[in-house]
Amino acid sequence: MVNQEDPRVLRTRQLIREAFSILLQKKGFDAITIKDIAEKASINRATFYAHYEDKYALLEEITERAFYEMIPEEVKYAQEFTDEICNKLILLTHKYIVTFYKICGWNSKSIATLVDNKIKNMLQQTIEDIFLKGNTFSIKDNLNIKILSAMTCSAVYSATYSWFMAGENNEINLLVDIVRPYVMKGLDLYRTSNV
């Protein structure tokens, strides 16, 4: 087993991630082989496999790292889901989708589906964590919070993705002004209900 804290391990993983990112832009995900990644990172295939099971595991790590690095501090430490936090999550989701499009081009159905699902899961978990921290909702059981998180995530992600695909990337404030009231009004039903 590889010691994840060893500076050499960290450096090798960084080289692998950088090589993969460069190859994504040049070749596209489907065309990339482990041999390509190893050659670009100046390592051998065995070294790659010592760090990652396959290119899908590498993609998952890169997707996750990028998402968590983009989360604003206010969202990480939010104690309740406010208008401002909602705004930041919409902007974060948009920025993430745009960034990944530039890196990967979404030219592969397999990568688009993987990244899409990973983003949704991370966004939903971020929202759920905020919901669980505060005393915002009258419902407290985990299943209901999970469902509420899923609905909120779906609204934020779907609207943002549709906005991006429609090419409306210059009017991001308009997107926020459309999505935030929809999300917050829906959440208000659970803030005041006795469910």
Automatic annotation (TrEMBL):
This is TetR/AcrR family transcriptional regulator. The keyword DNA-binding applies. The lineage of its organism: Bacteria, Bacillati, Bacillota, Clostridia, Eubacteriales. Keywords: DNA-binding. One of its GO terms (molecular function) is DNA binding. PANTHER family: ACREF/ENVCD OPERON REPRESSOR-RELATED, TETR-FAMILY TRANSCRIPTIONAL REGULATOR. Residues 33-52 bind DNA. Residues 10-70 form the HTH tetR-type domain.
